[in-house]
């Protein structure tokens, strides 16, 4: 079974001096010809598919405001251009296209390299550089087409508040988010949504949380939560802004750390989901980190060793998360 990917760079979705720009993918793009995966074309999502995770009025308002673009529509700042509505439909469609191919048995797993990103977009508003919530839309689309349980695991440096808002009252939809505590958007504490214990799990991290901490979180939190929830597919919000030298965050992953956590996620999918896993690009604002991290994900998806170690270990000591992990496990009733 093959690995597939789609690439939606949205090159006209760009705003002066904004960090979420097409240039994020400039180092990665020429490397894609060498990956051991088949490229497929994204199919544009329909407004009805977007409405699986969003208020239909939001879809209409984004379409209208983009006609008048460019402009700022959210204080993050989130911007739009005249092509952003179509770009966002294609980004969401790219994730749906990948997920459908995996569910239909046309591929073992997939990587949707798309922008604009999505995990901050809430049901009724675009925010945090995100127009529509690509991964939540794909999750809901999979549920609407026969799956009983899906889980999103989000290792972007920022909390996936939009994905949480979509899944919070949907028992079929599991969510785990690792994120740096105290930065944008300021959400994602341990005891959020007490009615969803064991299904909606927030892992707020101290700055400089590095490879060792993420490995522990994968083994001690991701693994038991996946085992308990029993998803039929994993969808991964892959944010390369958790790298230690990202320009707007302060976590501590290295390229090898991205490979190791991605490999653990692929192994969980192999064990519990018949291998069905789709990675989806979210943040990451240094083009070299995005390229190195994405190539590490491809190595994990194809069960290959890390072909190119960037030699970029964090210069900062990994922060202590013993009590934080204990508190998360206790809140969710996970045996230690």
Label the structural class: alpha/beta
The global form is globular
* H/E element sequence: EEHHEEHEHEHEEHEHEHH
Separation of termini? Answer: 36 Å
Descriptive report:
- The chain has 336 residues and is an alpha/beta fold.
- The chain has helices spanning 47-50, 56-67, 84-103, 134-144, 161-167, 211-229, 255-272, 287-301, 322-331, and strands spanning 3-8, 38-39, 71-74, 78-80, 109-114, 150-154, 173-180, 200-205, 234-238, 277-281.
- The strands form two sheets. An eight-stranded parallel sheet has the order 2-1-5-10-9-6-7-8, sandwiched between helices. A two-stranded antiparallel sheet has the order 3-4.
- Helix 3 (84-103) crosses helix 4 (134-144), helix 6 packs parallel to helix 7 and helix 7 (255-272) runs parallel beside helix 8.
- It is globular.
- The model has no long low-confidence stretch (mean pLDDT 97).
Short description:
This protein is of the alpha/beta class.
Considering the chains and any ligands shown, give keywords for the structure.
two-stranded antiparallel ribbon; 10 strands; globular; 15% strand; alpha/beta; 336 residues
Give the arrangement of secondary structure elements.
Blueprint: E1 3-8, E2 38-39, H1 47-50, H2 56-67, E3 71-74, E4 78-80, H3 84-103, E5 109-114, H4 134-144, E6 150-154, H5 161-167, E7 173-180, E8 200-205, H6 211-229, E9 234-238, H7 255-272, E10 277-281, H8 287-301, H9 322-331
Parallel strand pairs: 1-2, 1-5, 5-10, 6-7, 6-9, 7-8, 9-10
Antiparallel strand pairs: 3-4
